[in-house]
Amino acid sequence: MAASLNRYDAATRRLSGRVSESLLLAFVRVVLGGIFWRSGQTKVAEGTWFQLTDSTYELFRTEYAGVPLPAELAAVVANGAEHILPALLLIGLFTRGAALALVGMTLTIQFFVYPDAWWPEHSLWTALALVLVLRGGGRFSLDALLSRGRA
Is the dihedral of CA 29, 32, 35, 40 positive or negative? Predict the structure, then answer.
């Protein structure tokens, strides 16, 4: 029994190391960023980077009308966030701030757009983002590279 516990403890130490945690944080950055990036892509005209479609503006005038901003402004701000924040997560730059902004965006969606979507969607997005807010981008991020440069 003691030998099994020792092997378990050794495996736990290896899995809890900085490299494995950083790989996990990189994965979380890609997954969370991918969710919002893909959402942003549904709002832009095909073949463009950020040109919003007429249907996107209509969506913000109707289905997303609860957001306390003018529809035209909300569409532009939301789409900008759905592209810029995931890009920051992907490269691991300003990870904590980008993740915190996505928590804010998720809560805005939760309270003003889809109040019945906490389980399973919004709770999962919030959990992923909070991991990044608390732990940062990990060793495989520009944040870590810049931090080493300042040290």
Answer: negative
Other beta carbons within 10 Å of 33 = 24
Distance CA 20, CA 139 (A): 10
pLDDT, tens only, 24-80: 999 999 999 999 999 999 999 999 988 999 999 999 999 999 999 999 999 999 999
Distance, first Cα to last Cα, the chain: 45
User: What does the block give as tokens for 140?
Assistant: 């495989």
pLDDT at 70: 98
What are the residue boundaries of the structural domains of the chain, listed by start? 17-150
Give the DSSP H or E segment for 14. helix 2-15
Instruction: List phi, psi (to 5°) of 88.
Output: -65, -40
Angle at 30 between CA 22 and CA 64, to 5 degrees: 135
Q: What's the DSSP call for residue 50?
A: S
**Residue 86 is inside which H or E element, if any?**
helix 71-91
